[in-house]
Amino acid sequence: MDNFNMESDESLETQREIMESDKSLETQRESMENQLIEPKKLLEMKNLKVYFVADDKELKAVDDVSYYINEGETLGIVGESGCGKSVSSMAILRLLDSPPAKYAGGEILFEGKDLLKISNDEMRKIRGNEISVIFQEPMTSLNPIKSVGDQIAEAMILHQGLSKSVARTEVIKLLELVRIPNAERIVDEYPFTLSGGMCQRCMIALALACKPKLLIADEPTTALDVTIQAQVLQLMNELKDTIGASIIFITHDLGVIAEMADRVMVMYAGKVAEVADVVEIFESPKHPYTIGLIRSKPDMETDADRLEVIPGNVPDLNSKPEGCPFHPRCESAGPRCSEEFPEETIISDSHKVACWLYMEGGVGYE
């Protein structure tokens, strides 16, 4: 009998080990499957065209732009002033006055819903709630005759139905989250009594008030000095992990992009020039415009007396050249460049470029 009991115990133990092993293998399989699952797209822009109508002419500010941003991702959009960065992003929330702006074509899909086709009432429910914006000029973006606390609480009361007293408590917590000292006092202050850095922190708190899924940061550090800029960037990186939001980060500063972005999109004259992950865009840029931007960035490791520059200027919307809009400034331009805009060429799974050099027959074609 004792032998029988011992054998039974050993058999049960063996079965437990097999079951534990099966569970472990199942866990590993699920983990591998999760790694193979593609990231979920939060927002996708397809062939967006935004024109400004002036003197019976259509000025193409954004011309056939397509991109996407995944959940939890930071997409950096770079380019000189006038390249269409802000216009394409403000179009997401339909913040462009129409007229003169005209949404001439394309789709902006947010969680599968086309934001260009929904009603104004539906759009209001999304603005400041599911999608928020941090503007580049906090001193002019905040209302000077309302306390910062009232401005932040307004979104909570409107979208979340909180009472004024509860909203005030939540605002103080938000101000503490963005590292504003003496939050209980600052909540009653007016924007003109605060520094630029403090106002920008209040703008970030306002944007985060309803825990948005997508945050559009339109050059949020442009008006700040270098020290405050570094603090704000560090804060945004930490908050991204805290709230799990996706970020579209618009800037002309490549140093900021290197610190903030997962992927980078380079725009020029309303067109997408190049898209790649942040490491690849710096280590292996393809488009002559991207290369020019990177070369014009100060480098502490070189002894160059002068920075390299891209000759000329971004073309005026009223006089955009035919073909690739960069060709008048491009040292590698050929005859085709002035005739037709090139199709997108896939360099790798995460790298695409629109340049004739990488089309079949071009010097960069492989």
Looking across the biggest beta sheet, what order are the strands in? 6-7-8-3-9-10-12-11
Shape: globular
Question: What structural class do you assign from the helix and strand content?
Answer: alpha/beta
User: What portion of residues belong to β-strands?
Assistant: 15-25%
**Secondary structure tally: strands:** 12
Largest sheet: 8 strands, mixed
Order of helices and strands: HEEEHEEHEHHHHHEHEHEEHHEE
Mean pLDDT: 85
Termini, distance in Å? Answer: 77 Å
Number of helices: 12
What level of helicity do the residues show? Answer: 25-40%
How does this model look, in words?
- The chain is built from twelve helices and twelve strands.
- The protein is α/β, with parallel strands linked by helices and 366 residues long.
- The strands form two sheets. It has an eight-stranded mixed beta sheet.
- Helix 5 (148-160) packs across helix 6 (164-177) and helix 5 packs parallel to helix 8 (196-208).
Summarize the structure.
With 366 residues, this protein is an alpha/beta fold. The chain is built from 12 helices and 12 strands.
